[in-house]
Specification:
The chain contains eleven helices and five strands. The chain is α/β, with parallel strands linked by helices. Adenosine-5'-diphosphate binds next to helix 4 and helix 11. The site of magnesium ion has 4 residues, from helix 4. Its EC number is 2.7.4.14.
């Protein structure tokens, strides 16, 4: 495992080394990495982070499962973490539920803390952060709290009509998988997603993937991105 991660390390970049070092102390994995190889410098041993963008129903979760299987990432789904929070009747649960039901975005502070906790609890160092960031506010909050930028950003680009069709057929009993909420989610997505896409395009990190096709066809476009990194 370490060798694979070490081989990914030349592609790992971090824009704010000082904040990163500060946040690094919060990662158990950081300590284990730095003690595992004498050739590894701290900046190379940081977590390898992939953000997974795309509208509702674009296939993020489905492709994440394939990436986990093929490349050993840990899947951190922002939506799943928020739904877990609702189910646990936590202090934030009611607010999260009404926000999701309205098709809006939960305050970044809440989501980033949940993501951070999940990353801290993992022994893995390769993370797929699915459904995040969904706004510039999300993106900035992550950078401030975690102190690192993603190494790779995937964007599953899917026509609205196809996304609506998939969400309505999803059948997972989700409160937001109904036509009224989907319309709102698509409006929010259209309003907030493009600045994020533009930001990571400018930074040379974005991989735009046409999300129309079978699950396997789409994964064949995803695979080379990670295969190249682990060479
Ligand atoms: N390429 C695809 N073609 C058709 N249906 C798909 C495809 N990928 C995923 N699905 C289905 O569409 C629905 C939404 O997929 P999901 O992975 O949950 O998307 P997201 O996480 O982006 O909302 C699910 O029911 C899933 O099985
Ligand atoms: N970064 C995030 C991710 C999800 N949410 C909320 C709002 C989203 O509509 C719901 C569901 O997110 P999820 O990623 O599970 O949704 P899809 O898989 O794209 O259908 O959670 C959020 O507020 N902030
Ligand atoms: Mg999903």
């Amino acid at each position: 495992m370490w060798r694979r991660v070490a081989s990914l390390s030349p592609l790992i970049s971090h824009s704010k080394p000082s904040i990163h070092n500060q946040a690094a102390s919060t990662f158990k994995i950081w300590e284990s990495f730095t003690s595992q190889s004498e050739t590894v410098t701290p900046s190379k041993a940081a977590p390898f982070i992939t953000f997974v963008l795309g509208g509702p129903g674009s296939g993020k979760g489905t492709q994440c499962a394939k990436i986990v299987e093929a490349f050993g990432f840990t899947h951190v789904s922002a939506g799943d973490l928020l739904r877990r929070e609702i189910a646990s009747n936590s202090a934030y649960g009611a607010v999260i539920l009404s926000t999701i039901r309205e098709g809006k975005i939960v305050p970044s502070q809440v989501t980033v803390q949940l993501i951070l906790k999940e990353m801290e609890a993992s022994d893995n160092c390769k993370f797929l952060i699915d459904g995040f960031p969904r706004s510039e506010e999300n993106r900035k909050a992550f950078e401030e709290v975690i102190g690192a930028e993603p190494d790779v950003v995937l964007f599953f680009d899917c026509p609205e009509q196809e996304m609506v069709k998939r969400v309505l057929n999803r059948n997972q009993g989700r409160v937001d998988d109904n036509i009224e909420t989907i319309k709102k989610r698509l409006e929010v997505f259209d309003e907030l997603n493009w600045p994020i896409v533009n930001y990571y395009t400018q930074r040379g990190k974005l991989h735009r993937i046409n999300a129309v096709g079978t699950v396997d066809e789409i994964f064949e476009k995803v695979r080379p991105i990670f295969a190249a990194l682990s060479k």
